[in-house]
Specification:
Helices cover about 25% and strands about 35% of the residues. It is an alpha+beta fold. The protein folds into two domains: about 110 residues, Probable inorganic polyphosphate/atp-NAD kinase, domain 1 (Rossmann fold, 3-Layer(aba) Sandwich), CATH 3.40.50; about 170 residues, Tumour Suppressor Smad4 (Sandwich). Strands 5, 6, 7, 9, 10, 14 and 17 form a seven-stranded antiparallel beta sheet that branches. A six-stranded antiparallel beta sheet has the order 13-12-11-8-15-16. A four-stranded parallel beta sheet has the order 2-1-3-4, sandwiched between helices.
């Protein structure tokens, strides 16, 4: 959405007021929209409605651009509503990890630059992951994920990370909780990929990723791209504690050689059924223990605005 775009632009900004820089983001958005002569409506999220209702209201009111300001959870929820609508999404990362935003080339600390990109960046179509889960006989409605879905000790780590620690240490807060879970026993699961018969594995977690890069240059999925039409999968069959050393070396040093404790794959859909109920997480939003999870990818379903110059 550039200033030279002749089509009328009606901007809605959905901001999470629990984030420290949300008021600064609001001010910059108001200034940027006013400079372009665009009407701007600001909606704020609540605990009861973390973004979906606001995004639906924006679409119903005729939004031609929606900007979301918040963490991965807020971006995930708003992006899920916009998926398939054709209305572009601008992202102002204000959260703890900001994983999806980082994978789009946004730098979380560059607030003014991110606001400019959210208003006038380059449109780019990306995939959306969709997850549903079962407890007992009842299946949930589908929920979106933009970075990763995980089941097992990965999700338990998310559940164990305290909110106040995330606020002060940001994405590093996950490391303390993760260390506690590193040496937990592998979980027996049945894993079915793209409609094939399920196979039984014992794993620390099962991940399905739309993107692959973490802060610090660490890549969970070396070949993942948010616009390739597939989910990258990872099974972590850790059997002995010392195997974590090779896992860490591959991530931190970006080693290209295979590591026995990491089994990569690709899928359009997969079903994960643990022997015992396990927690689930979607882009860092945790769900209490579930009996089964089903994940799929919808290719090119969401339009996001990304930096016009990738080197910025």
């Amino acid at each position: 959405m550039s200033a030279a775009d002749p089509s009328p632009t009606r901007v809605f900004a959905i901001l999470n007021p629990a984030r420290r820089r949300w008021s600064a983001a609001r001010r910059l958005l108001e200034e940027g929209a006013a400079a372009r002569g665009w009407p701007l409506t600001v909606l704020t999220t609540t605990v009861a409605d973390p973004g979906a209702g606001q995004a639906r209201a924006a679409l119903d009111a005729g939004a031609t651009l929606v900007v979301v300001g918040g963490g991965d959870g807020t971006v995930r929820v708003v992006g899920g509503v916009l998926a398939g609508s054709g209305v572009p999404l601008g992202i102002v990362p204000l959260g703890t990890a900001n994983l999806f935003a980082r994978n789009l080339g946004l730098r979380p600390r560059a607030l003014a630059r991110n606001v400019a990109t959210a208003l006038a960046g380059r449109p780019h179509r990306v995939d959306v992951g969709w997850s549903r889960h079962r407890r007992g006989e009842e299946w949930s409605a589908e929920e979106p994920f933009l970075f990763v879905a995980g089941l097992g000790h990965d999700a338990a780590t998310v559940l164990a990370t305290r909110a106040w620690l995330k606020r002060w240490l940001r994405w590093l807060a996950y490391l303390g909780a993760g260390a506690v879970h590193l040496f937990r026993s592998p979980i027996p699961v049945r894993l079915a990929v793209d409609g094939r018969p399920p196979r039984e594995v014992r794993t620390w977690c099962v991940l399905a990723g739309n993107c692959g890069r973490l802060p610090g240059g660490i890549r969970v999925f070396p070949d993942a791209r948010p616009d390739d039409g597939v989910l990258d999968t990872l099974v972590v069959p850790i059997r002995r504690p010392w195997q974590w050393a090779s896992v860490a070396a591959k991530g931190l040093l970006r080693l290209k050689r295979d590591v026995r404790a990491l089994e990569y794959g690709r899928a359009h859909d997969l079903v994960v059924q643990p022997d015992t109920p396990q927690p689930l997480q979607l882009d860092g939003d945790a769900v209490e223990a579930v009996d089964e999870a089903a994940w799929r990818v919808a290719a090119s379903e969401l339009t996001v605005l990304i930096p016009t110059d990738p080197s910025e």
